[in-house]
Write a structure and sequence with these properties.
- This protein is an alpha/beta fold.
- It folds into two domains: 141 residues, Nucleotidyltransferase, domain 5 (2-Layer Sandwich), CATH 3.30.420; 172 residues, Nucleotidyltransferase, domain 5, CATH 3.30.420.40.
- Helices cover 39% and strands 21% of the residues.
- It contains eleven helices and twelve strands.
- The chain has a five-stranded mixed beta sheet with strand order 3-2-1-4-7, with helices on both faces. It has a five-stranded mixed beta sheet with strand order 10-9-8-11-12, with helices on both faces. The protein has a two-stranded antiparallel ribbon with strand order 5-6.
- Strand 1 and strand 2 form a beta hairpin.
- The longest helix has 25 residues.
Length: 336
């Protein structure tokens, strides 16, 4: 039996068909068989957009079957939230224009005649890293996306935590500064407003002095300044870059300390910017900062590690959602 995964984003969509490998006592990986990555184009009508995705998926299924793939068992969708899992709806994702109250599970289920599972993209990524990546072998793990914004996913006791209203894991919106900087979500003082890639780039473009190596690496064009150039300048020992990196790590450590106190995970997995920064610039100094903010008994056993799936994450995340019935069950409280 095969699985169909769809990762739907604001700029791209990823479709993949995979099959389980090494299945034993529920422990297995999923091997992608065929995949397709294309740009996400919006017509203004979700029906038109979704019909295009279904058409692409049908082509991919035909290709997989021509290669000897068995019948599809389930479909998994990773998409920007807010997601209503019970109803199978995408409510009103801010970066999917025209997509409001989209009955995603119903449309895909009718098209392919198999169960459809949907999950927000951060939770889906957490499932993938837990099952197939840097969180493998743990029962209690937290994953943080570290890119344009800050997303998260929490696995506790081997189960994805989704919460009473489906909003658990919104770790980028924990307050770290009372009345602080305004976050894109509309609140103030959120972790994302201090360590999210977009917020950080805006700060750097405003504050980077002309004398900094960052400015030189950008060719004097402030619009090009962002975390990538800051990390390059920090590697060269630029004082401003190192100071900004230290500030970023201070705020990230505050957020992680709150996560540790709330969930007591075995392992915290960090993606994107943290992965790019690496051990010496990010993980080693971050661990020291977190140790100073939590109890010794917690810090001794806590692992803070880079994400492992890299460019494969979107397809593995969607496949992990499709595979959820054979390893993960959301521990959401049933609605009255």
């Amino acid at each position: 039996m095969a699985l169909l995964g769809l990762d739907i984003g604001g700029t791209k969509r990823v479709l993949v068909i995979g099959e389980r490998v090494g299945e034993r006592d529920g422990d297995h990986t999923i091997r992608p068989l065929v995949r397709r990555r294309t740009a996400m184009r919006f017509s203004g009508d979700w029906r038109v957009d979704l019909a295009s995705i279904v058409a692409d998926a049908e082509v991919l299924v035909a290709e997989a079957r021509a290669g000897g793939c068995g019948p599809l068992e389930a479909i998994g969708v990773a998409a920007p939230g807010p997601v209503d899992r019970g109803a199978g709806l995408l409510r009103n994702p801010p970066n999917l224009p025209g997509w409001r109250d989209v009955p995603l599970a119903q449309v895909l289920g009718e098209a392919f005649g198999i169960p459809v599972r949907i999950e927000n993209d951060a939770n889906a990524a957490a499932l993938a890293e837990h099952r197939f990546g840097a969180g493998r072998g743990t029962e209690d793990m937290v994953y943080l996306t570290m890119s344009t914004g800050i997303g998260g996913g929490v696995v506790s006791g081997g189960r994805l935590v989704v919460g009473a209203n489906g909003f658990a894991g919104e770790l980028g919106h924990m307050p770290v500064v009372r009345g602080g900087l305004r976050c894109p979500c509309g609140l103030r003082g959120c972790l994302e407003a201090y360590v999210g890639g977009q917020a950080w780039a805006k700060r750097l473009r405003r504050r980077t002095p002309d004398s900094s190596r960052i400015h030189a690496l950008a060719g004097g064009e402030r619009a090009k300044i962002g975390s990538e150039l800051l990390l390059a300048a920090a590697e060269e020992g630029d004082a401003f870059a190192l100071a900004e990196l230290a500030r970023w790590l201070d705020f990230l450590a505050l957020g992680i300390a709150s996560i540790v106190m709330a969930f007591d995970p075995e392992r915290i997995v960090l993606g994107t910017i943290a992965v790019a920064a690496g051990e010496s610039l990010c993980f080693a100094p971050l661990r020291e900062r977190v140790r100073a903010l939590v109890w010794p008994g917690q810090s001794e056993r806590l692992e803070i590690v880079p994400a492992a799936l890299g460019a494969e994450l979107p397809e593995q995340a969607a496949l992990a959602v499709a595979d959820a019935g054979s390893g993960f069950q959301a521990n959401a409280r049933p609605r009255a």
